[in-house]
Write a structure and sequence with these properties.
Length: 385
């Protein structure tokens, strides 16, 4: 979300100062609301693997300090004069994007995530011409939901459905829409789940979300494809089958089994082996934001006429559709609340692959208990010399 480069510090955040990606409590400046903006006091923010990629150099970002986070839920604290959909006190969420041109064909079709001028919730340079209240943010990078307050155009704010707990609602705005969108295209829009089988590569936050959505779509079965056996018990709890893809015999037994494979892994891995598990004409969908190139042989796709696809979150209309679907089917992600002081340890666990399958959600109210840091420990303040 927009951040005023040299404004009065009016919000706390968890941010990284460099690619070591250690998180510290920092202070930032959020803009006041303009006519079509909504100001939000952030209550909770989920921790996504993309947050790590943005901070550790995988995506080549060079904006410091940067506060990640795009699984946001909170309470409206102020609205602009022209805002019609929200009022102070409403429970709302914000996901992976906070701006687009809203005039191109893609935006008009509800595919704002593909707009050439789409602005991500963190790590994008904020554009000019978005209103006087955003003048100080122009050209400065956006900072995300690991913070106590945000200001966003109402177009990119979502009402949290009645009965949905704010603690997990934000998780749906990244992990939920990222997995719902390809399942929507390949399952719901193709006659529903009956008679179809789905596999999920990786069993972290995206993986467990994909399982619950696919099951709600009434597919015949869901199978986890994982590199090791350590999450088999977690899969059993959700009623999934389990294949260790580093085991040649297990992969061979799963050959030509699945209609759709959603690959949620965000590091280079052996896609060619996994493609063999698809039925003829099946679809292999990459969801993990792999920052480095990895090899995929065309030969692996030839024998089954497999489609290799990539999916990027979803537009505003589909995101609302996802929220309504989750509310209707009572889909709740596997999550646990953590104090802001424990966020850095979880961040490191996400990066080194030791994080558990459930999603960690930061209680942003606990940021007030942390000391503010103006520069990473061990650095020298040049102004003091």
């Amino acid at each position: 979300m927009a951040t005023i480069a040299n404004g009065t510090k009016n919000a706390r955040a968890l941010g990284a100062f460099n690619t070591k990606a250690d998180l510290y409590c920092i202070e930032i400046s959020r803009p006041d609301v303009g006519p079509t903006d909504v100001a939000i006091d952030v209550s909770y923010c989920g921790m996504c693997h993309s947050d790590c990629h943005a901070c550790n150099g995988d995506w080549g970002l060079d904006f410091w300090p940067i506060a990640p986070g795009h699984e946001i839920s909170g309470v409206v604290s102020a609205v602009g004069t022209d805002v019609k959909r929200f009022k102070v006190g409403d429970k709302v969420g914000v996901g992976c994007m906070v701006e687009s041109c809203r005039s191109c064909d893609l935006c008009k079709e509800g595919l704002e995530q593909h707009c050439p001028n789409m602005i991500q919730t963190y790590g994008s340079q904020f554009p000019a011409g978005r209103g006087e209240n955003f003048k100080g943010a122009e050209g400065h990078h956006t900072n995300g939901g690991y913070s106590t307050a945000i200001t966003v155009n109402e177009h990119f704010v979502f009402p949290i459905p009645e009965g949905m707990d704010m603690k997990y609602a934000g998780v749906l705005l990244c992990a939920g829409i990222t997995t719902f969108s390809p399942l929507n295209r390949h399952i719901l829009q193709k006659g529903g789940g009956k008679g179809k089988t789905v596999a999920i590569v990786g069993f972290g936050g995206l993986g467990q979300m994909a399982v619950k959505l696919a099951q709600a779509m009434e597919v015949d079965s869901v199978t986890i494809l994982s590199r090791s056996d350590k999450k088999r018990a977690d899969a059993d709890k959700l009623g999934c089958k389990y294949v260790v893809y580093s085991n040649e015999d297990e992969v061979k037994d799963a050959a030509r089994t699945f209609d759709v494979v959603l690959d949620t892994v965000s590091a280079p891995h052996d896609v060619a082996t996994l493609v063999s598990t698809l039925k003829v004409g099946g679809s292999y969908v990459l969801l993990g934001a792999v920052g480095k190139p990895f090899e995929v042989s065309a030969f692996a796709f030839c024998s089954t006429v497999t489609q290799l696809r990539v999916s990027l979150i979803g537009g505003v209309p589909e995101t609302q559709e996802m929220l309504d679907f989750c509310a209707k089917h009572n889909i709740v992600p596997e999550y646990r609340m953590i104090d802001a002081k424990k966020a850095n340890a979880q961040f490191q666990a996400l990066m080194d692959g030791t994080a558990k399958a459930d999603r960690c959600v930061i209680d942003m109210s606990t940021l007030k208990n942390m000391d503010v840091v103006e520069s990473p420990p061990g650095t020298v303040d040049a102004s003091a010399q």
